[in-house]
Amino acid sequence: MARVADDQPLRDENGSVGRDLPTEPRFLIVGQVRAPHGVRGEVRVQILTDFPERFRPGAEICIGPEHRRYTIQKVRFHEGDVLIKLVGLDDRNAVESFRGAEVTVPVEQAMPLPEGTFYVHQIVGLRVWTDAGEPLGTVSEVLSLPANDVYVVDTPQGEIWLPAISDVILDIDLAQGRMTVHLLPGLV
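The chain above was modelled as a monomer; its predicted structure follows.
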């Protein structure tokens, strides 16, 4: 039901994310530089987005904690990663310092999502209510598991995990910052 796209919000220095921050995240993580590739300034990037098409010539990306902007000159996909050549960086030495750095885009460049699909930063921080009208807690984390996503909810009694399936997640109202759930036997 409520699938979550893979673009991840950046966390602050305390690990907080989403609605726990004073504002929505400014950047979304879409990749991580593995290493320079070859001697002509290419970098090998692990893709951390559901939208690899965002890596295209002419697109802008940000690299590192300073979010320095670069324009993509050339792209080719290789063994599940993307090899990116950036405008003006023409040798291995120019990109060596990118090793391990996050590749981000401004949150304004988030790709539009289909109905019933949300970004993690939209889900984390939602207040959770049962269909009986009782407050349950707040979503603190989204886990992407093979069968379905799972929303981790912090409650006064401890943490509970809610599978993101239509039998459990009845409604997500981003404008109200609220999620309505039906608690199946054994979930609490």
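The helical segments are 92-95, 120-123.
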